[in-house]
Amino acid sequence: MIGFSLLRDPHHNKGLAFTEKERDAHYLRGLLPPVCIGLGLQEKKFMQNLRQYQVPLQKYVAMMDLQERNERLFYKLLVDNVEELLPIVYTPTVGEACQKYGSIFRRPQGLYISLKEKGKILEVLKNWPERSIQVIVVTDGERILGLGDLGCQGLPITIDVGTNNEQLLNDEFYIGLRQKRATGQEYHDFMYEFMCAVKQNYGEKVLIQFEDFANHNAFDLLAKYGTTHLVFNDDIQAGTGIAELIALEMSKRTKLPIKETRKKIWLVDSKGLVVGSRLGSLQTFKKAWAHDHEPIKTLLEAVKAIKPTVLIGTSGVGKTFTKEVVEAMSSFNEKPVILALSNPTTQSECTAEEAYKWSNGRVIFASGSPFDPIEHNGKTFIPGQANNAYIFPGLGLGLVISGTIRVHDDMLLAACLATRLPRPADLVKYAESCMYTPIYRNYRDNYFPFGRKMWNRTEIMDKPKNNIICKE
């Protein structure tokens, strides 16, 4: 069964790229058509087939099926066709995939840790076949992208504590616990068991990325475990996190106290401008941004009063940057900067076309989801994309290869607190040596010393150093 099993192992399968010698050595004769083709031709063939699909979700399913068959070809496609495929495996298509995950579910791609496993989380983690895990992305599914509570349909390691989404609870294809969300002490005890089990199983330096947690839990989790675990949360280290980083950088450049630079940044939430008179009712993470000003109820009124140079949207609420808001920004800025960062596309604060049209082409625009080039007044504008997908994988790699044991805000501006000493002479070369490279490895006969009976002992040349359980 060695050859047959090899073809069904996505980590090792090369499909028609197995050489004649490999087919003889590893019992593949007759299990493949006679032709041998390389990775490049496999890539060309798959992309040609993928482009025949008209529906993005079909492309997503095809890509996930490929990942289950041939992992290296999957990542090679992504590396070589990132502009075309990122909108398929990430925003905006992944949002639809999460919403319909119960219907398109084929094979699990991560771990599902539900309340049924309370008291047994360490045992569950040990069921994952890889042992040298360095990065974990975990969600409880309460705030997926800008789509809200999607329960067990969040795609990475899922902490399933139930869902308050009635549509999912009544969906016969829903794959998660059919109960309301656990809250309070029950929720925090379960998360505590998970965090302890992760460190016990994978060690002090395993990086845990909290993903798509609702704010009321996200801030508490980051505050509680930020001093005991290597953790970060890219969602709340957006929003007020973006504000804090801007204030931090302004402080570094101007030498002013950060309390002073925070006053240059204003927040607007669902109740209007965040001001001092609201201090008693504000969530803790907003209080540092409650400046002295008369109450203002709407974003438009706030823009007109504050006259900002940059408008950043992380609300998860679509269409909040209206024509009037963009026109107001353009009335007192020659080049207004507008960043509509919420995902997916339906939740974007405004579209690229709207921003360019309403500013008469003067806007500097970027969004969380991709937009096609825009024609306006005879000019072609190419919208920028400012998405954490371009930042946090690199941050994660830096944290892993530097050997740091805690994440601090300064790390989002510059790498520091490394324990991997001495510093490598060539940082780029060292980083590349730690990265996964999606090319086929050559299988050697002596890497299968026990023959058919010991397939589970298989090793391969140049096995990747980093195994990552992650979303998308």
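[next item in queue]
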Amino acid sequence: MSDIYESAANSLGLFSGPYLTKVELQLSCKGIPDRDSLCKPDPCLVLAMQSCGQWMEVDRTEVIPSCGNPNFSKVFTLDFYFEERQRLRFELLDIYSGGLNGMKHEAFLGFVECNLGQIISQRKLSKALLKPGGTVGKSIITIAAEELTGNDDHIELSFSARKLDDKDFFTKSDPFLEIYRLNEDATMQLVYRTETVKNNLNPVWKRFKVSLNSLCAGDHERKLQVAIDFTASNGDPRNSCSLHYIHPFQPNEYLKALVAIGEICQDYDSDKMFPAFGFGAQVPPDYKISHDFAVNFNEENPECVGIQGVVEAYQACLPKLQLYGPTNIAPIIQKVACSASQEVHTKEAMQYFILLILTDGVITDMADTREAIVQASHLPMSIIIVGIGNADFSDMQMLDGGEGILCSTRGEPVLRDIVQFVPFRNFKNASPAALAKSVLAEVPNQVVEYYNNKGIKPKMPSVYQSSKQFGL
């Protein structure tokens, strides 16, 4: 199984709108080399975001003088779109004054690139900086993410101190105050740093505000499973007219849809392992018809390493299958629902499952599918269906709630809407990101609704502590 989003309730329960939320990024570095034998670096981190293929500077931290292991107090606030891939670049600079005229110099020390979703899913991401030229350096950057609750409340604080110790025999101290949070993993995280009061043993620091949003923690966990239609209506994979045809230079529509959606989802997956299934084919060695077989032919372990692993398993299995039919998707929904139902009985029920179904045909077991969806609506589970090809997909609108509340043949309504259907043909001339954005847009609210119905609340904020630090 794959861990798509660590503690979905904690994270997505804090969404301020249907499509985005705001996040704060807290930054620190370790192991920055000295400028020379006499001087430590004066580090600063620059945040850039990719737009139209170009890196654009968004913000930068303060400069911390003479420090090889900086903990920056500057927080970056960004809009986070769950359904989009947002590329970030962090550049480490050494900013110092030099020469007779005291001009400022910026020395480039290294960089890290990642997706915002990777940071969100792990809550805290540590990576080695790449030095100029692309070689891996010894410096480490750590990026901690916090989602904002939409609560604009602040705590206003003021501090003073008396009779502090002298820096040495000749000079007084230059004190400043830092407030740290004690995280659940027992690590300390900087929340705020005051200004430095020079040469003063009885400092009075300026009154300041700390946002309650910066004191909120979030966990994310979700699971993704992939199901691919191998019915005969797709056409012989050896024929260039087939929807499963493997072209030597360009992906077919199944691959385009799989990669577009999977590459977004895998950012929220901790182990990057994806169970992949097929349906509607005769499977070796006995070539019996199956509607829920493992694409890698390993029924004990259907997981593939990353989305690229799913792609490779799909391409490898095609020549070994005999495409058949009918287009029954109830068995694969029930298979995933079985895993989701087991999660309900765990202590915290923090795992959420997403089933992505890629199919070219009209569903032939509609009654059973409706029943399976109604039952799945009670579970931590969402279903995304992408219609491949030019078939009549009008029946899919009923599953998507386009014709009113979906009910089973017995008249039982869904507890909540968990199905999103999109015909791939609407996105043939659009970017992969446009398809992913469309099919994933409803997932956050579906997750929130499930955990709200279950009365599962986000975890409470961690304990906060303050500590005095003295700048030398």
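[queue empty]
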